[in-house]
Amino acid sequence: MPRLFARSCVTAAAVVVAFGFAGLASQAQAKTLKWITFKPEASNDAQSISTKWFVEEFKKRTGGKDTIQMFWGGSVAKSKEIPDALSGGAGDIGDIITPYFQDKFPLNNAIGYYIPQPHSTIEIAELLELWHRQYPQFGKELEKYNLKVIGYRPLEKYGLICNKPVKSIADLKGKRIRTYGFAYPALVKALGGTPVSMASADGYEALQRGILDCSPIGPSLAHGWKYDEVAKYYVDVPIGASFGHLVAMNLKSYNALDPQTRAIIDGLGREYAMRYTVTLDELTQEILAGWKKKGVTVTKLSADSLDAALKSADVQAVRQKWVDKAKAAGLTDEQTQQIVDEIENR
User: Fold this and answer.
1) C-alpha torsion sign, points 319, 321, 326, 327
2) What is the pLDDT of residues 294-346, one digit of tens each?
3) CA count, 13 A, side-chain hemisphere, 308
4) Nearest to 32 by CA among 66, 6, 3
5) Cα–Cα dist 30/105, whole Å
């Protein structure tokens, strides 16, 4: 065999082997990320629809190399277990109901201390994204728990759904109303109601059995949790949009992604809030139209109906509590006041 030909064969073989190992390496780098959520897959609301969009887009944008496997309905962790489960690596991505953890994530719960407030769903997402860019303390608060935010899911504008007619704010006096966090108990108390701490998942039975009279919620969530089956009176009172959920990643999982995949995750996170909000608006219009046929009565109350409650000492004390926590987290007086102004004014 001529020496040149032999050398060419060896070189060709080396190239084949090299490509073989490269292919194996590529396969080894492929990832299946685990997304854990409390949301039932069949709920078919804005959260589940937009989550499925994220999963499908991730697979498409990675060319199928990387995928996300969904674990729906609290199969890995219930709603109040997800932050710890995600921190510990039981999942790579997860939905954190931020208002349930106002002591753990006070900065990221800024909106949760300011209920009622005037902003829409997408405006709140824009504020959170802005604050994360401007103030590193927001991200560091999550990093303490091995977490990183990749997307924002503010909830819709809230009213109240009740199992008895409510025609004015005065009718809420003595009513047992579901609450969570700090702001809602203070607001309910200021309105003359009785706060009852309870997770959303338990609201259906409580409304059905009369343990609750009302629950703060928006039309989409009321329909998704089927509250509108057992409570036929929706009070459109301008409580405002709640912050809702952080779509978060285990920080180690995020850092382990290759730069291209990380960029895809970041891009999807930036697009997510708009996709979610558009879906939410479309579903809300359908639900409101359907409520007329289902016999759900909608009563609209004016914005000034909450003025007295907003000025109450309890509501103002909750807001001051956030100011104190923000300063303790390292924000200056000027930075804290800037955020408060952005929350309270459109």
Assistant:
1) positive
2) 999 999 998 788 999 999 999 999 999 999 999 999 999 999 999 999 999 87
3) 9
4) 66
5) 32
137 vs 41, 247, 276, CA distance in Å?
A: 34, 18, 26
Q: Return the residue matching tokens 């710890």.
A: 84
Residue 22 Cα distances to 8, 53, 304, angstroms: 21, 31, 66
Indicate the domain borders of the chain: 31-155+243-284, 157-242+295-344
The residues near 220 (Cβ < 8 Å, ≥ 6 apart) are: 45, 46, 156, 280, 283, 284, 287
What amino acid is encoded at 85 in this protein? A
* Identity of residue 243: F
> Structure pTM?
0.84
CB neighbour class for 320 (10 Å; exposed up to 12, middle 13-18, buried from 19): exposed
* Domains 31-155+243-284 and 157-242+295-344 fall in the same CATH topology: yes
| Cα 239 to the center of its chain, rounded Å | 18
pLDDT tens-digit readout, 151-165 = 999 999 999 999 999
What CATH number should be reported for the domain whose range is 31-155+243-284? 3.40.190.170
Compute the distance between CA of residue 155 and CA of residue 217 in angstroms, rounded to an integer.
9
pLDDT, tens digit, 9 for 90 and up, residues 5-32:
333 343 344 333 333 433 433 444 689 9
* Mean pLDDT (whole number) for 285-292: 95
Dihedrals phi, psi of 69, to nearest 5 degrees? -100, 125
User: In CATH, which superfamily holds the domain spanning 157-242+295-344?
Assistant: Bacterial extracellular solute-binding protein, family 7 (3.40.190.170)
Task: Return the axis-axis angle of helices 183-190 and 313-328, rounded to nearest 10°.
Answer: 160
Taking phi first (over 0 means left), then psi (-120 to 50 degrees means alpha), and beta for anything else, what does residue 240 get?
left
The b-or-e profile of 60-98 (16+ CB within 10 A means b, else e) is ebbeeebebebbbebebbebeebbebbbeebbbbbbbbb
Residue 49 half-sphere exposure toward CB, CA atoms < 13 A: 17
